[in-house]
């Protein structure tokens, strides 16, 4: 990954911290819902999951992710969002700050 891609990746992750899982009141990055963020010549590809396959607000979160990425990227950038279930999400994927927020600190 080039220095430019690294900077863009960091910028996109910062932007995605504005996307909140409304059930948990925490951003999707610190919850560990972002599994992969690739930047390439074809655009940006993002693999993400939900805390549960039965998440009633999953579609809303996906829409928020897409609009956040569109606002942060040039208009002609292709965005591929992939909702994945493997590996299953668990609290172990959360940032230390998120685990502490929920009282699950190590």
UniProtKB/TrEMBL annotation:
Gene3D superfamilies: Fe-S cluster assembly (FSCA). Pfam families: FeS_assembly_P. InterPro entries: Fe-S_Maturation_MIP18 (IPR052339), FSCA_dom_sf (IPR034904), MIP18-like (IPR002744). Residues 11-79 form the MIP18 family-like domain. This is Metal-sulfur cluster assembly factor. It comes from Uliginosibacterium sediminicola. The lineage of its organism: Bacteria, Pseudomonadati, Pseudomonadota, Betaproteobacteria, Rhodocyclales.
């Amino acid at each position: 990954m080039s220095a430019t891609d690294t900077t863009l990746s960091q910028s996109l992750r910062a932007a995605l911290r504005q996307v909140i899982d409304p059930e948990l009141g925490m951003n999707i990055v610190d919850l560990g819902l972002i599994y992969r963020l690739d930047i390439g010549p074809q655009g940006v590809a993002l693999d993400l999951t939900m805390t549960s396959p039965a998440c009633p607000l999953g579609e809303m979160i996906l829409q928020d992710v897409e609009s956040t990425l569109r606002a942060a990227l040039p208009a002609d950038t292709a965005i591929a969002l992939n909702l994945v279930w493997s590996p299953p999400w668990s609290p172990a994927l959360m940032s230390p700050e998120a685990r502490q927020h929920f009282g699950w600190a190590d």
